[in-house]
Amino acid sequence: MVAVNGVELAVDEVGQGPPVVLVHGFPHTGLVWSEVRDALREDHRVVVPDLRGFGASTRTTEGLDAGTLSMDLEELVVSLGAGPALVVAIDAGVPAAFLLGMRRPDLLTRLVLVESTLGGLPGAETFFAAGPPWWFGFHQVRGLAESVLRGNEAAYAEWFLDQGTRGRGARPDLRSAIARTFARPDALHCALALYRALPESGQQISAAVAGARLTVPTTAVGAVPVGRALENQLRGVADVLDGHLVEDCGHIVPLDRPEELVGLLRHG
User: What is the full DSSP assignment across 59-116?
Assistant: First the structure.
């Protein structure tokens, strides 16, 4: 457990070498990175936190906006002496990692952002042409998802794991461990605060790019369904950007195509 920014983060830290920080999304914990972590630990120092409100970290519905989460990550990197680091984020963890790169480029060697979008930045219009994914609205109505899903939280988390791997599913031990986490009292309620903070996070992203550019070398990784949308958004704000589309891969790239993602992290 590492104390940062008024909360405690559960952190898995393994290996030695250049530091890598792996940031999960929803409905994940740091376990979503297990196969990537195990491959990188051979020659990297790998730091995998549970975000506040998730997993074994402090249970809270406060501070799930991208700005606060990015400050959590900043204090984590500094307190562990793990900077400058390769920072990799997926899904709902991407906005926080992006803001960290905007505010503290000195703490990053490279930024890899996987399968997400960044607020209302231009470039994702095609992805959002039919509106955002259905669960965005469902999650943002306070109390609704909690009441509808009560008693079925684990099955709900498993649905996302299945969808995010195009039906191939996660490794059984990881699948059950992540599902059990969201079956705990208040776990889903805390995690949903991340969606309820999306308007604030969007404003933070817009404010950040209004007066600065992303100077950290950045890789945008797309799969199904986000594809090139994140790369297109970053084109207007990043100085050094490359994009990679993982073929025949679901949204949760570290579970569905961990070997290809590890190759990108090692070799760019």
Answer: --SSS-SHHHHHHHHHHHHHHHT--SEEEEEEGGGHHHHHHHHHH-GGGEEEEEEES-
Helices (H), the chain: 34-40, 66-80, 94-103, 134-140, 144-149, 153-163, 172-183, 187-196, 198-210, 229-235, 253-256, 258-267
pLDDT at res. 267: 85
Both tokens of 45, joined, read: 């120092």
Residue 189's CB is within 10 A of a number of other CB atoms, namely 16
- Distance between CA atoms of residues 244 and 234, nearest Å: 13
Nearest to 68 by CA among 22, 99, 34: 99
Half-sphere exposure of 200 (CA within 13 A, CB side): 15
Confidence at residue 168, expressed as pLDDT on a 0 to 100 scale: 86
Section 49-60 average pLDDT? 98
What percentage of the chain has pLDDT greater than the value 70?
A: 100
Query: Does pTM top 0.90 for this prediction?
Result: yes
